[in-house]
Amino acid sequence: MMSMQILHRWLAAIVGLQLFIWVATGLAFNLIDSQHLNGNHYRQKMTAPPVDTASALAEPSQLLLQFPTQTVSAITLDNVLGKALYRVTSDKGKFGFWATDLSPVKLEPDQLKQLALSSYSGSGQVIAIELANDVADKYAASSALYRVDLQDERNTHIYVDATTAEVVAHENWGSNLKQLLFMLHFMDYLPDNGVSFNHIAIRIVATIVLLLGISGAILVIRKLKHGQYRIGRAHSENNTLILLSPDNEPLETITIHHSGMLDALNHHKERIRTSCGGGGQCGMCRVKFIDHPPLATDQDRSKLTDDQLNDGIRLSCQHQAMGGCVSLVNAAQLRHYIKLSSILD
Amino acid sequence: MVIMDIDFIRGKHLTHKATLTIPTDKTLISIGEVLRHFPGATRVNLYPSANEPRYQVVLADRVIFISAYNGQPVQQVTQAEAALMVNQVFNGSTNAMTAKLVTENAPSELNPRLLPVWQFSINDTVNTRLYISATSGMLVTQRHDYWRLFDIMWMLHIMDYEDREDIHNPLLSLMSLLALMTVLTGLALVFVAFANKPSERS
Ligand code: FES
Questions:
Q1: pTM of the model
Q2: pLDDT, position A193
């Protein structure tokens, strides 16, 4: 069976990056003032003058006749650019009609501009008006959705629906950043499908992250149980390691520069070769602690026999560095050490 | 949270509003007449309530509801009418339903701006509640136990254990920072563990 540690490591490798993105974007939402992410920074309530009744208005019931097959849930009389208009909400969408003759609304660029500006409290000039029907779905707007760009320090753009004469949304760089953060936070990497956090990819990754958390918690609890957490560096006056050959002939004296024993032994050069890099999996970092062998860890026990443990052999990657004598345990380690020394010296 | 479909949480499946349509059988009072009566109206909305089509008239300082059949103002929607609306939109049995008028102190599951409302407890297995506006007579929202569960998870998610709405609270900042450091050191460890493959064989 795969050990918990290897499982934990692979889970981390698979979802680590997304986990990072989740935490980082979450922190961004937490720290960034909502005002900075607010698309409606320059949005103002449109002043609505009373509906103009100078010319006779058509009845809403006449409009209903135009929608014989649809369920109409509301007809709203509104006042836009000084003219009365009806907006019909049906199961097929929203439609605008001028209230005097019931002709369909289709705002001209000039009217779009005027309407956009009436919802805008900033001082920027309109610099462009463009059809933006590619994002119509996102705003539940008709295909006659236009984007009115303003020249201000927030890069405000105002979306206006030309067939309902409605200001659909205000956006600026802040709200664009917010959408980017949401895209990352929701893993919504496919563009333009609205913001959703219920898709299969995020469910899979979230489940793996949960397993990552559980396996990590199990590892921590195990270590705690075995008293393998120590606070601070092991206290020792002695700051030098004496490395011995398997036959206890002195090879080298090393000053301790690292907190881990393997790192201390491999200071500046790889005196002891490993393949798991300190993960407690390969067993290649084993050395014999001559003076006071530390308490054996789970990893020691899984890689070493009882006899070896009794001899003071430990996985150096699993222990803290401490001064004293440490010996290599086999001929292969010695060969590697000699070869390395001959190349470097 | 990602497992629980958000439309389900919002209770979209509990009700169907699509059947509500403005009836065309009887003549409605003329919009011109409404405007003559309320010359300050900035917006007029014709909609189907459970009883009859109504005009919602938006004035500078208030909103008024009147019957579109006879122009009578509707001060407050009766329980009978609200119950009729529930029966029209709710997908399920309303046999065990109980009603309560809420005019102040909105329950935590309801936005106080929606008051006053008729609260209908369906008394089913997931404690569904439908809220009907006591001014317009329209369904404003629906809640069930899964929504309440999601709300608790949201509280845990943003670590605002009191009001469940402040995502800028310092506890969350602290925990997120710690989590960020944990993830970064974790990623570094993963990198070390996988990158430190055996050096070339001799
Ligand atoms: S380095 Fe692999 S077990 Fe210690």
A1: 0.77
A2: 57
Instruction: Give the minimum alpha-carbon distance from A207 to chain B in angstroms, rounded to a whole number.
Output: 9
- Helix/strand/coil percentages in chain A, nearest 5: 35, 20, 45
DSSP state of B14: G
Same domain as A124, residue A73: yes
Our answer on whether the CB atom of A278 is closer than 6 Å to any ligand 1 atom is yes
On whether the CB atoms of residues A36 and A174 are closer than 8 A, the answer is: yes
Do B107 and B170 lie in one domain? The reply is no
Q: What are the pLDDT digits (tens) for B181-201? A: 999 999 988 887 776 544 333
Which residue segment(s) compose the domain that B170 sits in? 165-195
ipTM of the modeled complex: 0.83
CA distances from A34 to A41, A180, A305, B88 (A): 10, 15, 60, 40
Residue B200 lies inside a defined structural domain of this protein: no
Spell out the residues 6+ positions from residue B2 whose beta carbon is closer than 8 angstroms to its own.
A197, A198, A202, A203, A206
A31 and A101 share a domain? no
Q: Which residues of B touch A24 (CB under 8 A)?
A: 180
Confirm whether B124 is domain-assigned.
yes
Q: Is the CB of A264 under 6 A from ligand 1?
A: no
